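User: I want to check something. If I give you two sequences, will you return the structure for each one separately, not as a complex?

Assistant: Yes, each is folded on its own. Here is the first sequence with its structure:
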Amino acid sequence: MRSPLRFAPLLLAPLAVWSCGTGPPPQTAAAYREPAPVSSESVPPRVTEVSPVADYRDVISLYRAKLSEDLIVQTIRDDRPVYDLQADQLIELRNTGVSERVIQTMIDSGRGPEAVTAAVVPPPPGF
């Protein structure tokens, strides 16, 4: 009985010849076109992504998991979630042991950077 592999060189030869090509044919000067210039008017303005409203109970879960206050504050500052906190939610956060520093960070996270800086930096002495 003859081996079916004896036909392998015949089947693979065209593949070998095709793969040894030098790439696409070179373009002539007539075939080359300069790319169209991009004007600043055609580029859409960059849209900043708005964070969805975050769940305050996630912060309570982090506190119950015994994560440090510094880590929770840094996570909130890095992720910049927006918390829509009502009075009853603030009371719940405080009653579960969440520090005022973390609660203030949660409130500040939904504001723009100018508002956060203004809230954190005290006025200079003499004012």
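And separately, the second sequence with its own structure:
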Amino acid sequence: MSHQYRPAQVVVRWVMLTVVLCITFSLTAPPAAADSAPRAYVANFSDNSVSVINTGTNQVVGSPITVGDSPLFLALTPNSRFLYVVNVFAPSVSVINTTTNIVVATVPLGTAGVSLANGVAITPDGRFAYVATQTPDGVSVINTATNTVVQTITAGFPAGAGPFGLAITPDGQSVYVANNGNATVSVINTNTHTVVKTISVGSLPEDVAISPDGELVYVTNNGSTTVSVINTDNNTVVRTITVGSSPDGVALTQCSGFAYVTNLNSNSLSVIDTETNTVAATITLPVGTLPDGVVLTSNGRFAYVTNENFPGSIFVINTGTNMVTQTITTGVRSDPSGIVIARRTVSED
């Protein structure tokens, strides 16, 4: 991403805000009361539902929320009031009110000829949700005020791209889309809704995460046992990091400078030091778990990992010791996939 899209003063302000928030949180934030702790939301792919977990008690809250066919990716609005759930084969997006845990809208994507839907990300101002789609390959843009598709971006995507995971920079100016079908990442300018760059990465890119300062993009390459690191200033790959077999999900801490990568076929997580972009640790999980989605608590102390081959199970990992401290069972006999954690407590307005 060139500097014309993200002025230097915006980056400096974002970095300063992130540092202040991290320091303030670590020094002043008391443990959340169990009944008001942030909720985790887990997509149950085979059950067409979403489970809710209280992160204070690590217990399931209520019954699963029924959504569309094969939910996979999830995204919360910045205030965590609404959850957007992508239903792969519907194809559609279910919108859940997180106060009531009720589906309040369903956004159809098939009307534009879309056959599959994948990743979803919401702009920092909460106004738009971007959803990766296939056939045609591209990205659908949803207005979150009306929950309608206002544009579908297809021009500039390579033939057979197969858009999958995606993420939006902290300044809201760019969307990075992993094209699973042809080993590239497409960069979309959110002001013009055009593809401004196509970047070659490893085989079968799956998930995308962006550093808090917006400078680096981390892309898991499921077919290459690597993670590509992209510099957003010039949109070039500046490092390729070898991790475990079939890297899938990726999540970054907001304060401590680490990226957590699930290695599906290695039954492990690679912990990447984002200062050096090297693997600092490998967390071994039980054989056959097939770790998939990963999310970190806002203070970075715990990672929650979904397991494809252990129906209805989520591992809770202490990031200080890199040990599994608890296994949560949702009670749903389905392979859990995407997972997110609300950034506010349920008692907040």
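Because they were folded independently, the notes below concern the second chain alone. The CA atoms of residues 68 and 87 lie 5 Å apart. Residues 1-21, 23-31 have pLDDT under 50 and may be disordered.
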